[in-house]
Amino acid sequence: MCLCSGSRSSKTFKPKKNIPEGSHQYELLKHAEATLGSGNLRQAVMLPEGEDLNEWIAVNTVDFFNQINMLYGTITEFCTETSCSVMSAGPRYEYHWADGTNIKKPIKCSAPKYIDYLMTWVQDQLDDETLFPSKIGVPFPKNFMSVAKTILKRLFRVYAHIYHQHFDSVMQLQEEAHLNTSFKHFIFFVQEFNLIDRRELAPLQDLIEKLGSKDR
Q1: 164 is in an annotated binding site
Q2: CA 208 – CA 211 distance, rounded (Å)
Q3: Is residue 34 part of a domain?
Q4: Which domain holds residue 111?
Q5: CATH number at residue 165
Q6: Residue 123 forms part of a structural domain
Q7: Is residue 206 part of a domain?
Q8: Which residues of the chain fall short of a pLDDT of 70?
Q9: Model's pTM, two decimal places?
């Protein structure tokens, strides 16, 4: 587990994943940041004209990993083996970890352990050049979309855990606006490209509807 030194807001749970400066993906990220600044999130998540869908999803997946990494990094001291002995999102939803390679059979574990497994697994996928090619002209693999969907489905669970189990701490730290904006961006993005099954979103369905209704 890496908690980088510095102020609370600069803490990250895992090292930040950087997109190489000067690359096309870096330009796409800059475009995403610029459109986000306009305040219209529905528009900001749309595929820019003439761009490759896989590349757009890849750039945004890296960005969401970095955002969640930072958000969870601010509350790790409150998410402990004692306070969160299971990985849950409220009383009705509990998550067990399996990655299909190192851990094939789902195991019940504490939230900090689960999130450590999850973020390490995501990081390994993002660092795999055969899955997330950073060089221009290198094609995305045929299974890219299914891997991206699994990553986003699992990252959603970190948001769900934070909202259900740690929202009081988020409010104490005055990070709720940051959390809400990040989650809204995430949800609008996965809705735009139909990347997470509606059943998986059930733990935060009320919040999702509320965020969506404000934009109608």
Answers
A1: no
A2: 5
A3: no
A4: 51-213
A5: 1.20.140.30
A6: yes
A7: yes
A8: 1-13, 15, 22, 26, 31-32, 34-39, 214-216
A9: 0.87
